[in-house]
Amino acid sequence: MAYQKALAHVIACGEAGLLPSRLDHEGMEQALVVLQQNLGAPGLTRRARSGAEPKTAATTKMASAKAVTVKRPALSKDPRCVALAEALKPLLEDTCPPGASGYGGALQANLHPADAEMLGGVALIRAAMRRAARQLGWRVRTVGYARERLVVVLVQDVREEPAEVSDALEKDFLRRGREMTERMSADGDEETLSRLGPAPVERQTQAFLQAARLAIAAHPGAWR
């Protein structure tokens, strides 16, 4: 990708509140995952400029304090966490590339804060993602943080893949790269973007919300 396009994408994701507030070593790794997941999302820059507030040191401290305040012990045993994890398992399996024997999966959902709060908050959603992923044998990395108008949650399988699935993962990587390039090239071309359909993160977000609705419907008492 050309430098200017890459820089514009980083700026757009930053303005949309998609990037972690701390860019230490761990934060940089999380940022790279989020940047890749959101590459080619149509209208990201336009949505960011109209919908996000600039971050300041004060708001960052307030967000950190809020995260500490809402943290609860033993989230993995919370009935909401158990129910959501069960609903997310097939969704996580579907993110694994064909022929990769369950390796290389990743799921990101960009949620409205009200939806995240309804499910129990960022910490509980991350706990449910970890629970579901570990039941599938993943070595898990999760990302989760909240902004004023956006909540980002992500789970990724970071296991080193065996040699026999490397070709399948490489094939999927090239496929996603071609799709990203096509989307970036079509920025502003509504006809082409319509033909391409929702971007990967948008598809995953809708699938996550559908899984969450199924979990609530199956276990309504857990969310009372």
Please mark out the parts with pLDDT under 50 across 5 or more consecutive residues, or reply none: 45-62
Q: What structural class do the secondary elements suggest?
A: mainly alpha
Number of strands: 3
C-alpha Rg (nearest Å): 18 Å
Shape: globular
Largest sheet: 3 strands, antiparallel
Instruction: List the strand order in the largest sheet.
Output: 1-3-2
Residues in helix, %: 55-70%
Number of helices: 10
Structure description:
By secondary structure, the protein is mostly helical. It contains ten helices and three strands; from the N terminus they run αααααβααββααα. A three-stranded antiparallel beta sheet has the order 1-3-2, with helices on both faces. α1 runs parallel beside α3, α5 packs across α7 (122-135) and α5 crosses α10. The relative contact order is 0.16.
Please tag this protein with its features.
224 residues, mainly alpha, three-stranded antiparallel beta sheet
List the SSEs and their pairings.
Blueprint: H1 3-15, H2 25-38, H3 44-51, H4 57-70, H5 79-94, E1 106-111, H6 113-119, H7 122-135, E2 140-146, E3 151-157, H8 166-185, H9 190-196, H10 200-218
Antiparallel strand pairs: 1-3, 2-3
Task: Tell me briefly what this model is.
The chain is mainly α. It has helices at 3-15, 25-38, 44-51, 57-70, 79-94, 113-119, 122-135, 166-185, 190-196, 200-218, and strands at residues 106-111, 140-146, 151-157. Mean pLDDT is 80; it is low at 45-62.
